């Protein structure tokens, strides 16, 4: 049996390379990298390749993915603030969790006592992005309650930026974490060991050496898989942007007008499409649609191919200017944005495959 399409191919050697480069950049600033596995659903070959790249801590937002990594000998963190209903599993499958609600932390304490484990807590602080986190002015009172709980170990402060509000991390907003750390030391004589200064959007500060010196952890996902920092979308030096490639097969190839003939109504998604009249064009349809993957963020590797549009099952391409002699059954390759990669990885209709599997050993 031949290869199944559409197919998402992960180049493991490029992923290992990206991890090594990012770990090296961060190590120069005494920053430890926690590798985020959620975008690739903790698929084992990718997880093991990332560990081979030099990280020793993994993080995911879903218990299901943490379960897949239960046997791995490394620290594991739950990224998404826990649901009360999953506190027992949080303690069982993760060593640390990110938290902002004292009622949830109390439930984690009860679960930790029952499981006879000590569970680490990273208190998330909202420094302006308005996603998860206690407000800076409420943090001291929250800490006062956390440190009274059994089997709960408050190890540090964390924050999240850019994911919701698009807030760019800088010395001023990250400085709020640093000042809060010192306040906690002065009030409670508690020296927090971790200051987690965000995600891939904070890497630009590491690269240009402006990140506050007391930030000693970053939770990195997108930069590993796509080779870019996410504050400005710039390529990280010496990293690959094409570690993941989506491939799909041509199922129709015909010359057709670029504008439908007749009155235009709503398409199958309730939208009224707009068309640019480019005359007769060579159009290829590949077996890939909106039910398979998020279309926004797909970009053909062949720069002479452009996307006309898509339905639930078909992606329509303009291949008129391609230098390739394309035929039925040929494969078209695409680069992906983070959101598109996420949808491709979670899609049951996209086959997953791995290139350079010989570069890692199963743990």
From TrEMBL:
Cofactor(s) this protein cannot do without: pyridoxal 5'-phosphate
Swiss-Prot/TrEMBL keywords: Isomerase, Pyridoxal phosphate
GO cellular component, one term: cytosol
GO molecular function annotations of the record: alanine racemase activity; pyridoxal phosphate binding
Occurrences of domain Alanine racemase N-terminal (ranges): 11-224
Source taxon at top rank: Bacteria
Isomerase as UniProt keyword: yes
Name of this protein: Alanine racemase, N-terminal domain-containing protein
